[in-house]
Amino acid sequence: MNANYIAAWALAGLVAGAAGAAGAGELRVAVVDTTRILKEYYKTDLAERHIQKQLEDFSSERDTLLAQHKKMKQEFEALRSESENKALTEVAREKKKEQAEEKLTAVIAFENSIRDKAASRKKELEGEGRKIQSELGRTIKDAIRTTSEKGHYTLVLADGGLLGNGLESVLYVDPKMDITDEVLKILNADKSATGKE
Fold first, then answer.
1. Start-to-end C-alpha separation, the chain
2. Number of CB atoms found within 10 A of residue 79's CB
3. Would you give per-residue pLDDT tens digits along the chain (197 residues)?
4. pTM of the model
5. Which domain does 59 fall in, by range?
6. What is the CA radius of gyration of the chain?
7. Measured CA distances, 29 to 11, 25, 151, 155, 168 (Å)
8. Mind giving me the DSSP string for the chain?
9. Less CB within 10 Å around the terminal CB: N or C of the chain?
């Protein structure tokens, strides 16, 4: 039995005790296998394929840029070599040297451009990945809430190692079980005594 599963059932036991003490009525606890949900939910596969396509497009774009970079470097090397050719006049060699320097400046600028595009694209893909994960998590939580309300479950726990996508170990709690107001009353009972409002 994995540790998450044991912890989840321990939490359920504590909640059951609290529910009994609070007179909340029948406690219905359910478990959702989040690993299976994420594997078998068709939109997870669609999202993965979408991201994979984006990565392939980026890789293709990068390959094109690298081929252009290689060609520019070869042109620079040819100009530099010609600038050292003793068969050319001094004026012609000087002109080739200037052209080589201009080409080198262009090569360096292009390298920086490639680096900037790669960083920008990486950031864009990471952001898109986070957005997709968040949307998947929100959709899964909505389905769990709907199922929980229809099945009159009080508490739904996650059983599985994949708790990304905005999913926590407690996936649904009946709002009637929320004792936050009562806890805050106890915590803030001495607020007026401290003189800080």
1. 49
2. 19
3. 455 555 555 555 555 554 454 444 688 888 888 888 888 999 989 999 999 999 999 999 999 999 999 999 999 999 999 999 999 999 999 999 999 999 999 999 999 999 999 999 999 999 999 999 889 888 888 898 899 888 888 988 887 655 555 666 777 777 777 677 777 888 787 777 666 55
4. 0.63
5. 3-194
6. 31
7. 11, 13, 10, 5, 16
8. --HHHHHHHHHHHHHHHHHHHHT-----EEEE-HHHHHHH-HHHHHHHHHHHHHHHHHHHHHHHHHHHHHHHHHHHHHHHHHHT-TTS-HHHHHHHHHHHHHHHHHHHHHHHHHHHHHHHHHHHHHHHHHHHHHHHHHHHHHHHHHHHHHTT-SEEEE-SS---TT--SEEEE-GGG--HHHHHHHHTTTHHHHT--
9. C
Which two structure tokens, joined as six digits, stand for 148? 């929980």
Amino acid letter, 81: S
Instruction: Tell me how far apart the alpha carbons of residues 136 and 186 are, in angstroms, rounded to a whole number.
Output: 38
Token duo for residue 103: 């080409």
Rounded alpha-carbon distances, angstroms, from residue 48 to 38, 42, 123, 167, 170: 11, 10, 17, 18, 25
Contacts of 64 (CB under 8 A, 6+ apart): none
In the sheet with 29-32, reading across from the earlier edge strand, the strands are: 29-32, 155-158, 170-173
